[in-house]
Design goal:
By secondary structure, the chain is an alpha/beta fold. About 50% of the residues lie in helices and about 10% in strands. A five-stranded mixed beta sheet has the order 1-4-7-5-6, sandwiched between helices. Strands 2-3-8 form a three-stranded antiparallel beta sheet.
Length: about 270
């Protein structure tokens, strides 16, 4: 049964922000207020910055490219530890990272997405997010730091829009905790409700410049088949999601046990 739990953290300057806790997992439920996902934190300010501080987030994992991070660095409270983990460093078709071009050059972005190329590029990008050497290195660092006993406080991971690189981090994490695929898919698709409204001003501006915004939608939202491709890539290359973690990322069964003990609590 898909969960209807509302886990959203409504921050105007940091959209697509939610808690991964509360979902039913193997042996209990995912621990709340321990791990969050979001879009970019580059514009975090004012009351939103104070709300972020109250979440006790001690570590942020930025999954964006080096160029994205340099152009729009995160704006975080003092004392938060920041990891730059470039998932797509080895990619030659980083459409997931290219979504950031929407504000600066929507016409060029739209021109590259016609005739179904947008969806096809996204599906290729999702397979890359699973199997590129840079992706494996980035998610390996993410998981090993999550289970580091020296790490304290809650943690958050994000990319630019919090939907693709972030979407796979969330999906793989939840699957490894034994969350059912229906709940994992629901969390993934929640982005369409949480992010797309925040992008409407950019879409309107693009339309005013003569851009066919329908061409942009395959890369601005998420689709179930994108997640299906990522899961299929993990299973094809590594046999299973657990195989992705052990063979692809280098975690062992003990590490996975630590992950589950740290992030799953008994259901009350």
């Amino acid at each position: 049964m898909t969960s209807t739990l509302d886990r959203r953290i409504p921050l105007r300057s940091a959209p697509n922000f939610r808690d991964l806790g509360g979902l039913p997992a193997a042996g209990g439920v995912v621990r709340s207020r321990s791990l969050y996902r979001s879009a970019t934190l580059a514009r975090l300010e004012g009351d939103d910055l104070e709300a972020f501080r109250r979440l006790d987030i001690g570590t942020v994992y930025d999954l964006r490219t080096a160029g994205e991070r340099s152009t729009s660095p995160d704006h975080l409270p003092d004392g938060v530890k920041l990891f730059g983990l470039d998932v797509l460093a080895d990619s030659t078709t980083d459409v997931a990272a290219g979504v950031g071009r929407l504000a600066s050059d929507p016409a060029a972005l739209a021109a590259s997405l016609g005739d179904g190329r947008g969806a096809a590029l996204m599906r290729e990008s999702y397979r890359n997010i699973v199997s590129l050497p840079s992706a494996l290195a980035a998610y390996r660092s993410f998981y090993f730091d999550l289970i580091d006993p020296a790490r304290s406080g809650a943690a958050l991971f994000h990319c630019t829009t919090g939907k693709d690189r972030t979407g796979w981090a969330a999906a793989s994490f939840l699957l490894l905790l034994g969350v059912g695929e229906d709940d994992v898919r629901a969390d993934y698709l929640e982005t369409n409700a949480d992010l797309l409204p925040a992008l409407q001003p950019l879409l309107a501006a693009a339309a005013d410049r003569g851009v066919d915004t329908q061409l942009l939608l395959p890369v601005l939202g998420v689709r179930g088949e994108y997640l299906d491709d990522a899961i299929d890539e993990a299973r094809t290359r590594f046999g299973s999601i657990e195989g992705y973690a052990t063979e692809g990322l280098g975690l062992n069964e003990s590490d996975l046990d630590v992950l589950r003990r740290r992030f799953v609590v008994p259901q009350v």
